[in-house]
Amino acid sequence: MRQLFPFSPDPDQVDLAGLYAYPDAAQWLRANMVASADGAATLGGLSAGLSSDADRHVFALLRALADVIMVGAGTARAEGYGPARVRSQWSGLREGRPPTPPIAVITARGDLDPDSRLIAEAPPHARTIVITTAQAALPAGLARRAEVVVAGEQTVDLKAAVAVLADRGYRRVLTEGGPHLLAQFVEAGLLDELCLTVGPLVAGPGAPRIVSGALPASAPLPLALGHVLEDNDFLLCRYVRR
Questions:
Q1: Which among 79, 2, 61, 41 has a CA at the least distance from the CA of 196?
Q2: Burial class of residue 144, CB neighbours in 10 A (0-12, 13-18, 19+)
Q3: What is the pLDDT of residue 45?
Q4: Residue 112 has what pLDDT?
Q5: How far is residue 31's CA from residue 66's CA, in Å, rounded to a whole number?
Q6: 0.85 exceeded by the pTM?
């Protein structure tokens, strides 16, 4: 892996933890996404086919840096989510915090399986957080195995959800999408940073973009380029909100 931007006198010596460190802010919401060169967010409905070893390496780092990981229920099901695991290489980044961050699942309907790996196998220090609505019909047993947070009546109020997480000490937020959830974060004005890996392939038509859904078009969100890394023709870009 080498650093293309900003200029480094030794581009092959990359301080990943330093490059991706969260700023000293009251709260910061970072999104991590992957896309093909022509903008597809998935291949065959999943993101794995767009990824690479370098992308998975940074994926693990971003999880280690985060206080909490937010994901949409549809993405959690499609991608087979389980509790977060922190690689031993990055375990030192968790000093003073629990050894792994919890997963916070966004679901308006509350239709999550209490026996799924994501919920049943979550450790006591990082129980899965289910962020849902007042009208959701939660399955029996879900509240015993997960932390349930109500944020909104019929739709999840993401601003309220993020505020609740901050009150619990989860200031460094990482969202892994999917595209519909990322669209909601952008529409709500909550996105501070986008980490985007661009894979060297053309996926063709049909796949969603990294921001997708039926929400009304919001104003463009200006971004500033923080850094660009390259590995085997994959570009790992970090953008911050202007």
A1: 41
A2: exposed
A3: 87
A4: 94
A5: 11
A6: yes
Does CATH place domain 28-66+172-242 in 3.40.640.10? no
What is the residue type of 104? A
What is the reported pLDDT for 219? Answer: 79
- What does the DSSP assignment read for 77-137? HHTT-------GGGGGGGTTS-SSPPEEEE-SS----TTSHHHHT--GGGPPEEEE-TT--
Rounded to whole angstroms, how far apart are CA atoms 125 and 145?
12
DSSP summary character for residue 162: H
Tell me the pLDDT band of 217, cut-offs 50, 70 and 90. low
Quote the distance between the C-alpha of residue 194 and its chain's center: 10
CA-nearest of 195, 157, 192, 159 to 176 is 195
Measure CA of the first residue to CA of the last residue in the chain; give whole Å. Answer: 27
3-state secondary structure of 227: strand
Question: Three-state SS string across 189-214, please?
Answer: CCCCEEEEEEECCCCCCCCCCCCCCC
CA triple 165-170-173, angle to 5 deg: 95
Q: From 82, 79, 89, select the one nearest 103 (Cα to Cα).
A: 82
Contact 140, 134 (CB under 8 A): no
Q: Where are the domains of the chain?
A: 28-66+172-242, 91-171
Alpha carbons 86 and 126: distance in angstroms, whole number: 12
Sign of CA dihedral 216, 30, 241, 131: positive
